[in-house]
Amino acid sequence: MEDVILETQRLTKEFKGFTAVSNVDLRVRRGSIHALIGPNGAGKTTCFNLLTKFLEPTSGTIRFNGIDITRERPAQIARRGVIRSFQISAVFPHLTLLENVRVGLQRGLGITFQFWRSERVLDQLNARARELLAEVGLHDLADELTVNLPYGRKRALEIATTLAMEPELMLLDEPTQGMGHEDVDRVTQLIKKVSAGRTILMVEHNMSVISTIADRITVLQRGAILAEGPYAEVSRNPQVMEAYMGTTDGQLQGAH
Hints:
- This protein is an alpha/beta fold.
- Helices cover 36% and strands 24% of the residues.
- The chain has two domains: 1-81 and 167-256, P-loop containing nucleotide triphosphate hydrolases (Rossmann fold, 3-Layer(aba) Sandwich); 90-166, no CATH class.
- The chain is built from nine helices and eleven strands.
- The longest helix is centred in the middle third of the chain and has 17 residues, at 119-135.
- The radius of gyration is 19 Å and the shape is globular.
């Protein structure tokens, strides 16, 4: 029996007669990197919003570690260890990198923004914050203001603040969007590195990223699952090629 951390059954979301997500059965294996891909408008982000309860499903169920979380609120789901990194960089620009990670750690401890706490508590957070910055290759920039970071490094910081929340399941929404090749490569390797001992579900457009690190891929089209499997299998699927390229010729690699 495979170890499934997250499972949806017939997950559906309708908006005034338009079905954005339609009967999606998703099974994410513990310890894997699972990619959710599909053309624009396929329902990927809506699916993420349902999983983190920023949207309520019209019907269907969501189970995390075997527990039905379909009706739980976003904060409850975050406390269970389902933590989402947003498509638009979600860091505080005028705090240092260390302070940004510390905010994530304070959330994890349930002492958010209680700045009157003793220095000892914050020092305890500093050590862990520096460890997390080291994990994403930003240790040398701990005291730099976030606003001064290049875009790719901001995304690395965002992953560090996500890690600060002690995720059992990390949801990464377009982690390499808007990056040049060098940053894409760096962030791809970073995701691979931080996936050790964790489970990652990611929405990603860049096929070279997916082919490098994803263990399993679910392809959505018009809100429904079109295909699922490892990259080698999915990339040769004629329906997938057609959905991306409008043709059954050539390879999927060119699709971004």
